[in-house]
């Protein structure tokens, strides 16, 4: 349990001191509970035998000190005090529960922010090894499970445990028989917990993983809806969902069935003890006058004790069932912390981290500027857990305004080289310099110089305007800059044909636009952000010849005004480039003009 708690405290964001105040409130509530219940036994005794006021030292002193006129008024006053205590206790208990809920949902919100921040800041290779649906579920689902089923449940269980312990101590002062009764009530619950604790963790893991698989299947089926309809494989996805839903149903049913048991067991044992003990006394002694006060306190306390013990045992079962969720969140945060630690030990990444998240509109002068040339000097890179080098001492230079092309077979290292140039992958050796300065002095400033246009443009389900001004708040979009970007990307005709112009919704992943239109929006995006360097990663590979011609024309119109690095699939698209680099196995084999490398090399 200590290991479990240590992981919970590790995951909970800052401001953990709030937990101290919560536990102090728990302690105060427990004291009120005991004080109120502790007055019930004297009240019942005095109500049945008012003459006890004179024989009890404390009651006699209170009676004389406050100058009560009658014994009935004294007993009634004690009753009103008990009522007042229970009213205050009930209000405080409600307020504490509300505070626990607020704290739990605050934890969820902070954890969501923490995870998205760390996922976005994580090295690019981290995302190469992780499924985006899995990360989304961590942020949306696992944080909710952690907040509701672990944090809130743990606090409620702690509160109930403190109250249960306080009430048990009170009952023990009344009679040693009560101690035995409490043990008899708790014994079946302890036995049940011992026998099912491993099963609960197993069922909880099965339920969580089946839910995870359902989300993944839904992403696959709806993400490829066109292919699913054409191929006719809907039944395949339906069957997968059905199988996972059955697993989820069985596992969840077992977990919640066990959680329901504690209350039923305790109520049954409590009734057996209370009614059974009274019946035995009646048979043996024929009189229960002496037991009335004790039984009254025990009955009332038990009514409060049973819910508390139920909350404690059910809470323990629920916490156990969420062990898998806890492990997943803890593992992710530990992994991200390790990645950050490794990054901080790398001076290249450290310089970038200092500027991470700087707003593009920041008025502070950039550390890096591009006026003359970019030089890659003996750049090498190896992917984690890979034996060979993906890039092997690559060197090249690009003058401002030049266009270069990277060609080669699949696996030649073109995309890896571009990812290194983009600053997504950090080279294991070598350097990239712009105007004589290493880009790793401030990687953010370097990336602010680059516009990236991939083969498949990511478009939000939003307006064309917001997709071009990607990452900029709507009220901060510069309309003049937007118009220039649209014109340079040759989108004027499209905007004129659309009834809503730049306010037109593009649909999920831009389904309402053609491939060429999506690519030109990608170009407009890079131009809107006024980037000096454009990197095109097979930007026309998926287009037909006519559409490719339109996009290529948009690209050619930028020659001279923009420095371009182009990965080419169709070699005719790089005819206008100043130099062509042929790559193979992470090395540059040849460099020359389009005529020398492509035409004379008979690559067409």
TrEMBL record:
Annotated membrane topology: Multi-pass membrane protein
Transmembrane segments: 20-44, 72-92, 145-170, 176-196, 264-285
Gene3D superfamilies, sorted: ABC transporter type 1, transmembrane domain (1.20.1560.10), P-loop containing nucleotide triphosphate hydrolases (3.40.50.300)
Span of domain ABC transporter: 374-603
Compartment list: Cell membrane
Keywords tagged on the record: ATP-binding, Membrane, Nucleotide-binding, Transmembrane, Transmembrane helix
InterPro entries linked: AAA+_ATPase (IPR003593), ABC1_TM_dom (IPR011527), ABC1_TM_sf (IPR036640), ABC_transporter-like_ATP-bd (IPR003439), ABC_transporter-like_CS (IPR017871), P-loop_NTPase (IPR027417), Type_1_exporter (IPR039421)
Keyword Transmembrane on entry: yes
Residue ranges of domain ABC transmembrane type-1 in the record: 20-321
GO molecular function: ATP binding
Name of one Pfam family that matches: ABC_tran
Record-given protein name: ABC transporter ATP-binding protein/permease
